[in-house]
Predict the structure.
Amino acid sequence: MPRIAVARPDGLVIASYNIHKCVGTDGKRDPDRIVDVIGEIEPDIIALQEVDTRFGERKGLLHLERLEREHGLVPVPLSKPSAAHGWHGNIVLYRKGLVSHVHEISLPGLEPRGALVTELDFEDDKGVRIIAAHFGLLRRSREQQARAIVEHLRRNRERPTLVLGDLNEWRIGAKSALRGFSPAFGALPPSAPSFPSRLPFLALDRIISNRPGLIGDVVAHETPLSRIASDHLPVMTTLAYDAV
C-alpha cells in the first residue's frame, strides 16, 4: 500500500527528493514525471537534489515553469544566475513565506558538494531555516560535511532549522557518519527507507530538525509513479506551524 503523509490543518508539508537528474528506474529521462510526483506530494517546501547535468556547464533539468503554474512552487533565488537550477545540484522550492536570506555553502570533502541555506519568514513573526544538501559518497566526507553545517549554525542566529537532503548515510548512533550533527540536532531518529525506489531498504534521504516537536514522523512517498520516476523515493513530513 502507498505510504503518504497527510498534513495537519496547522502544519506545512515539507519534502526532500533526489530526482536522479530526472532519469527513472526504466532508464528514461522524463522531467514531467518528477513534476507529477511532486504534485502527488503537494509540498509547501521541497528540497531537490541532482537537478542539473553533472559535467561541463551545468544546466537545469527541471520544468520550473510547470511547477509554478500547476503547483505554485518557485525556486529560492541563487546569488549568481546561471544555466544551472541549483547550487551543487540542490534547489529549494517553496509556495509559502518570504525569502529573507540565502547563503550558499561549499562543503568539505573529496567530491565537490554544497549546501543551500534559506531563511523563510511567515506571518506572525514565524519563520524557519532550510538547509538543503547532498552529502558525499565517502564516510570521511560525510563526517566533515555534517560538522561544517553545525559550524555554520553556530556562527548564525538561533532559529528553527531543518536539514533536508540525500545524506548518503543509513546508519544512526555511534556508527553513523552523521554523528557530527548531534551538537545542534541531538540524536538522529530513524528515517524511512527511500533507496532504491523499487524496493527501498536504505534510509539515505532525511529530514531532521533542531527542536523537539518541530516536525512529525518522516515517511517515504511510495506510489506507482514515484517508484519509477527516480531511483530514490521522496521523503516528507509535516512542519508544526505553531512551533516555528
The longest strand covers residues 98-107. DSSP finds five helices and eleven strands in the chain.
